[in-house]
Amino acid sequence: MARTIVELLARREALGPFERFHMAGHWDATGMQMATAIQRVVARSTGRTPRISGTPWWLLRIAAPFVTTLRELQEMRYLWEQPVRMVNSRLVQLLGHEPHTPLDQAVEASLVGMGCLQPAQHALGAQVVNR
Questions:
Q1: Contact in structure between 104 and 41 (CB atoms under 8 Å)
Q2: Which residues neighbour 16 within 8 Å (Cβ) at sequence distance 6 or greater?
Q3: Domain count for the chain
Q4: What CA–CA distance (Å, rounded) separates 38 from 34?
Q5: Are residues 96 and 77 in the same domain?
Q6: Same domain, yes or no: 112 and 79
Q7: How many Cβ atoms from other residues are within 10 Å of residue 68's Cβ?
Q8: In this structure, are 20 and 42 located in the same domain?
Q9: Are 47 and 11 within one domain?
Q10: Are residues 68 and 4 both part of a single domain?
């Protein structure tokens, strides 16, 4: 995302005020691409492969009256059931491409940044790959 913003800022003189550009990002139609990327990154970093399972919505419903975050998550459940895909055609028309960071690299950086994983000695790096 940062690379995209830098490229848009380089063209800011040609842009109108409050222009909007969507990024397609990584499309994960089933939700499993992200889950398996997290699984791979954690396994590579810790040597232990986490188990993938479904969200226990029934449990969230029980706890929701007592935990604000879970109540809000219940309201957002439709986002797990209804795909939302952003169209990046304006962005690609302007830049000629949409910068992408490989999924495993982005997941690893996110997990390290959130303090969930220790930075790896063999880190995938921070280079953005244009496709």
A1: yes
A2: none
A3: 2
A4: 6
A5: no
A6: yes
A7: 9
A8: no
A9: no
A10: no
Range(s) of the domain holding residue 54: 29-83+101-131
CB 50 within 8 A of CB 42: yes
Residue pLDDT, tens place only, 93-129: 999 999 999 999 999 999 999 999 988 754 454 444 4
Tens digits of residue pLDDT in 34-90: 999 999 999 999 999 999 998 899 999 999 999 999 999 999 998 888 888 899 999
126 and 77, same structural domain? yes
Burial of 26 (0-12, 13-18, 19+ CB in 10 A): middle
The position carrying tokens 């492969």 is: 49
CB atoms within 10 A of CB 90: 12
| Cβ atoms of 91 and 21 closer than 8 Å | yes
The candidate with the shortest Cα–Cα distance to 126, out of 37, 3, 25, is 3
Whether 119 and 94 share a structural domain: no
Task: Report the alpha-carbon distance of residue 120 to residue 124 in Å, rounded.
Answer: 8
Tokens matching residue 64: 């929701």
**CA 18, 20, 25, 30 torsion-angle sign:** positive
